[in-house]
User: Fold this.
Amino acid sequence: MITYKITKKHHHANRENFKIKKLYNSDVMDALNNITKRNSARSLVEPHPTKDEMATVFEAALRAPDHAWLKPSTFIQITGAGRNKLSDIFIQSAKELKSELSNIQITKYTEAPFRAPMIVILVSTPKDHPKVPPIEQIISTGCAGQNIMLALNAMGYGAIWRTGAFAFNKIIAKNLGLESSAEVIGYIYTGTASGNNKKIPTHDLNDYVDVWD
Assistant:
């Protein structure tokens, strides 16, 4: 948490300036570490988050920037036998995309939903608005996805954001029963991280940031 200390100064012109000093504490450092140290898990096992924990996660997701409150983001949470249904939809969609599937592809698509005990599908359904183009609304859903991953990380769970053939695909959206304007922008595989953590890459900020002053 950032605590603000505000002191008021009165000037001769009867104008007021406010001097704000940020006092950083351990909560702030925990929050920053949750962002900078977050990493995708190598593999995921049980347990997955509880119902109450996921309620908090989705509350975090819905705090993503949302210009004009168009609410483009929705989510499909899948666990247990629900993964069988998703597996069937993957195979159905793959057959519609390709007339022939190899045995390797069939196995891959059949087993994909079982690589984690929980999957959250990120769905963006852009609305018509003169000032908010569809891409901005899709980005909003992407921000919601990042909030989900950060919330899970803060709770001690692991996550992997997957896309591939079944993202940004109208056939998979149709087979999931979504509106015609909806886009599946990704699948957040969720559970308890297993295996060694991946190395977090280092960056030279000069390669990414231009400062104008």
